[in-house]
UniProtKB/TrEMBL annotation:
Organism phylogeny: Bacteria, Bacillati, Actinomycetota, Actinomycetes, Pseudonocardiales
Provenance organism: Pseudonocardia broussonetiae
Name of the protein in question: DUF4145 domain-containing protein
Length: 142
């Protein structure tokens, strides 16, 4: 699936999901999706880094809003905490949570917190694919 189609799919899912479509943050989520699309026009490492950043922020906000709408309380307001809460609520299996912890959270943290770290286009594509999969799985189960 192309980046553009992947982002458009996430946008449609978010707009149709009961917890997200009613969220006060839906426009901000759409803004992140729009920012991801604009990154595709940037050449080189900066575009890939920004695409990882915006996709992560969209995923982070979507999971936060879903959890909040259910009145669940994660241990920590961060992507890893949201994944643990989704596992505790049987939305994700332990294997799925561990997978996304390794392929999304750990890799995202490296690029967001390590000076000079920039994903290659292949690495960025892998992270974006895993974030998309996580988003689709969670929204289909909650």
């Amino acid at each position: 699936m192309t980046y553009s189609k992947r982002i458009e799919t996430m946008r449609v899912i978010a707009g149709g999901h009961p917890s997200l479509s009613q969220s006060n943050k839906i426009q901000a989520i759409y803004g992140e999706f729009n920012s991801i699309k604009s990154c595709f026009r940037r050449k080189g490492a900066a575009g890939w880094l920004l695409s990882v950043l915006y996709t992560t922020r969209a995923l982070d906000t979507c999971l936060s809003e879903i959890i909040s709408s259910k009145h669940w309380t994660p241990k920590g307001a961060a992507l890893g905490g949201y994944l643990k809460e989704l596992e505790a609520r049987a939305v994700l299996t332990a294997v799925e949570r561990q997978l996304y912890q390794a392929t999304v959270v750990k890799k995202r943290n490296r690029y967001m917190h390590e000076a000079g770290a920039t994903p290659s286009n292949v690495e960025a594509d892998r992270i974006l694919t895993d974030m998309h999969a996580c988003f689709v799985i969670v929204t289909s189960r909650v």
